[in-house]
Structure formats: structure tokens, C-alpha cells
Amino acid sequence: MEGQSKLASFETAVLPHLDAAYNLARWLTRNDADAQDVVQEAYLRAFRFFGGFHGEDGRAWLLGIVRNTSYTWMQQNRSAQLNTPLDDELHEVKSDDLNPEALLLQKADAQMLRQAVEELPLEFREVLVLRELDEMSYKQIAVVADLPLGTVMSRLARARKRLQQILASHTQTEVLT
Amino acid sequence: MSCQTAQELIHAYVDGELDLARSLEVGQHMQECQVCASAYHNQAALRSAFKDSSLHYSVPVGLEKRIRSSLRREAKSEAGRRVFGWRWLPVGVGLAFVLLMAFVIWRAMPGLRPSGDELLAQEMVSNHVRSLQLENHRTDVISSDQHTVKPWFDGKLDFAPPVKDFSSQGFPLIGGRLEYLNNRAVAALIYQRQKHYINLYIWPAQQSNVTGEVGTKRQGYNLLHWTNSGMTYWAISDLNGVELHEFARLVQEAQ
User: What Å distances lie between residue A37 and A16, A49, B42, CA to CA?
Assistant: First the structure.
């Protein structure tokens, strides 16, 4: 592909997903300046690898690159955050957390929800953002996060339970104070 | 459907990822089970809380512009890498021009390039030295008798070189051999002057006009060449110029 026509088709296929790209990078890095750097780097990488893109799901393809770029970036700059691997036992949520009494969402405003999502471990945060904010299917999430389909489902379930725990603890603190 | 199965499927149900049959089963179960129905409402509430909260971060001003320009730069440098040479084209054109000018000057000014004679002189020196280096190569036919040497060339050359012995004048004929010089087969006659050897190369002249002796000195060797009777002669030796000239005169007078 020649330079100008490659650039033109890249801009058509990939640039419209800048919104989703920035949003994901912003949620993963939790910082605006870092997210901008990551997205810019991810777009350069995407452009270099554009020859391997065959017109499938441009958004999922790009977000996969954004995710990898974010992880690389965090490894280089904040390795401590990534050094806490996700432990299924540690994050196991008991089913009684799902009881109706835990339904505190009516009291949770947008600010609380945002804060709770930010507190989630990275692996939970990314599947939740892809599902709830980008409205991606399990299949698309599997592509972006490079996970088996079954893991997407279970991780999303655990992410939601965990989120509700965080929300519950916040709401209770608020009630107490 | 058991509560456990229903709870396992509840997220896929909320997310619309179940096939129709499974979806109907879960829906059926929730109509019968209050606990599972609450769990479902819980998840549905969470989903709608996300929808209402607009947690989506919007793209900061200027980011798209920066990305576009960095992509343009990348596209340009990729194109530069691919088509090696567009960048080097002016250099190539310049180089071609310099070479062309050099060629034009070389053609226009013969003084700047080695003349045919100079190249030939160089060839003579090499040949002469080589003939002295190898004892066996000095002569193909060893004879001081001009009547032996001259016929020896018959059939080996397309011309008959004049062969004369100058023993009585102090330049005895040693022999003759075939050489390839100036892009043709030539006759080489070897004479001796005391300890010095003289190679006399002879071949038909391209022009029939007579030219006088022209002498040069190369690498310590004296060279004399002239054209006479339709033959070109080159004499080369480490002999001093005066004696070589004397030899040349003998050759010329003999014809």
C-alpha cells in the first residue's frame, strides 16, 4: 500500500474510533496526560500494523492495540500496579453479596460509580469499561483483552460483584458519617 | 433450572449474550424465584446506572490533530523507506552530471588523458621487463643468424619483419619471439649490447608516412619509436640514450 492511500484508508477505518481509544486508555491509566501519550503511541503502532488489518472490526482491533500499549506503558512507568496479579481466591465473591439488601445503587450517584470503577483492579476495570461504556459483546471483549470467551464472562461477573462491594462500603461510610 | 445455574447465567442474561432457549429458561426461572429475580434487578440496575452516569471520557481538544500530524509524518517516513532513492534522487542526478562533465572534458582535452603512445610505452616497458625476467621467455628462436630468425616468423605473423644482425657494429642479434602488443601480434627481436638487452618490436604501421625517432624514458628504460617503410618500430632498453639512438639508426639505415 502506498503512503498516501494507506494513510487515507487508515484514517477512514481507524480514526473514527478515537473516542473509544481515549476512553479506554484513560480508564486503564487513570490519568489524562498518560492516556493521551498512550493513544498517540497506539495510533502509530496501529498505522504500522495496518497491513495486517483486513477490515474486520476496526474498533476492537484498535482497542486491542490501545490496551497493549497501555500495559506496556504501565510496565515501564508504574510496574508496581501490575505486580499484583489477579487472584481468583482473593477476589472470590460470596453469592450472598448479591442479596437484595446490597442493592444500594439507587443511592450511588455518577461520581461514586466513577470512583468505584477506578478502585477496581485493572483486569476487572478493563472488562467492565469495554462492556458498560463501549457496549462491546463478549466476543469483542475477548478480542480486545486477549481472553478466552469463558473468562470474559466470569471475569465480568466478578468485576460487577466487586464493584457492588466497593459501592456498598462507600455508601455505608457515607451513611455513618 | 436451579438457582445456581440461573445465577451463573445471570450476567450473560443481562448482557444479552444467551441464546434464545437459554434466555427463555432464565426468564422462566426468575418468575418463579424471588432471590434470582432480585439478583437480576440488581445487575440490571447497575447496568442502567452506567448508562445514566456517562462515565465516558471525551477526547481532549487537540489530541486528534496531534495524532493526525504524527500519522502524516509516519506515512512520509514509511514512503521514504519504501521508495529508497526519492530522497537520494538529487544526489544521483548530481553524480551523473559530474560523471558526464568529466567524460566531456576527457574527450575534449586529449592532453589530460594518456595518449595512445603513452599507453603503448607503458605496455612496452611491461613486456620488456617480463621478457628479461624469464630466461625462457626472452627468445622463442635463439639465433644470431638473421636467416634463421626471419624465416621463423613466417606463418606466425601476417607480415614479414625485417631482421638484420648488427654484430659487427656491436649489437649482436640474439633471437626473436612473438608478442602480443597494441592489440595485435608483433615481432620482437632481441639484440645485445655488452650486458644490455634491447627489445625491438616491429609491426605494420597504420599510416604509411615516415616519422622520425621519438624518444621517451620510463622507469629507467629508454624507448625510441619510429615509422619507416610501412613498419612501426619500438626499441626499448636500459641502454643509455646515445647508444640506443645509435642502434636505432643502424636499424633504419639497414632498410
Answer: 18, 18, 37
